[in-house]
Amino acid sequence: MSKSSNHILSIQDIRKKFGGMLILDGVNMELEKGKLYQLIGPNGSGKTTLINIVSGFFKPDGGKITFDGIDITSKNLYHTYKTGLVRTWQIPQPFVNLTTLENFLISSNANSGESFLLAPLKSKWEKDEGKVMDTASEIMEMVNLVKQKYTSSQNLSGGQQKLLELGRAMMSGAKMILMDEPIAGVNPTLAHEIFKKISQICKEQKITFLIVEHRLDIALQYADYVFAMNRGEIIAQGNSEQVIKHPQVIESYLGE
Ligand SMILES: Nc1ncnc2c1ncn2[C@@H]1O[C@H](COP(=O)(O)OP(=O)(O)OP(=O)(O)O)[C@@H](O)[C@H]1O
Ligand SMILES: [Mg+2]
User: Fold this and answer.
1) Does residue 211 contact residue 182 with C-beta atoms inside 8 Å?
2) Pairing state of beta strands 208-212 and 176-180?
3) Is the confidence at residue 110, as pLDDT, over 90?
4) 41, 244, 247, 255: most buried, per Cβ within 10 A?
């Protein structure tokens, strides 16, 4: 397999068992930098399990995962997060009593004032803090939350909370963002807005996205490349038109 430096994530022969049942049966995927990838497949096909493994939430029973040149197989959530691979949760879990701005500031990876060694050395982190504030303002604009800067996150709408999650992932300096059903329960207009934002951020910031989504009528048009999964295996990949016309993909959805 070619290992062009353009690959940011390489998933090789990932296997996972739960209680003796093979849930992932040798998954292989190669993802390039700055593209929007979608992972589709019927209920129970193993999509969330794969996202859990890539993000370090579960350990695989076999296979290898390389992210940005680093072997992250079996690394934990914190470690993958620190390497720039960030997962947003299916259900957003913001710090509910904090405002949008505060949520952004605490998600930053760059604030050295957080380090207890540097905390007393004000001159060391004063500059950082200004930079973090600038970044927060830029990202708030990118995800359309400027008006909600001082709104407590519990008062954001469902769609705005998804955008908050996206912004928090960006604040952490993510090179790649994994999302599991980001538009579940969001009305179609806002769902399109969320995908437009993701697509714009992907292109402008060169952040790679891997998104699991069931609402194919809305999501697929934003994908650069699609992987289809069934029973723990990738059964088709390519552009969205090729993938949804693939006989095995059609067959896999018929049982739903
Ligand atoms: N922690 C777990 N323990 C045991 N079995 C699990 C666990 N997590 C998932 N499974 C099983 O693994 C299979 C794949 O589940 P997974 O959640 O990855 O599917 P999915 O493709 O995300 O489905 P959906 O589209 O419904 O979200 C299912 O049969 C599920 O019951
Ligand atoms: Mg799932």
Assistant:
1) yes
2) parallel
3) no
4) 41
Do you know the residue count of the chain? 256
DSSP string for residues in 122-151: HHHHHHHHHHHHHHHHHHHHHTT-GGGTTS
Tell me the pLDDT of the chain averaged across its residues: 89
The answer to pTM > 0.85 is yes
Residue 24 CA to ligand 1 centre (angstroms): 10
Strand pairing category for 36-40 and 225-230: parallel
CA 254 distance to own-chain centroid? 28
> Residue of the nearest CA to atom 16 in ligand 1?
46
pLDDT for position 113: 46
| Ligand 1 pocket mutation, candidates 16, 40, 47, criterion most atoms within 8 A of CB | 47
Tell me, in angstroms, the distance from the centre of ligand 1 to residue 48's CA: 7
pLDDT at 81 over 90: no
**Domains assigned to the chain:** 7-254 (3.40.50.300)
Q: What is the DSSP letter of 39?
A: E
- Angstrom distance (rounded) from CA 151 to CA 194: 19
Q: Quick check: 107 pLDDT over 90?
A: no
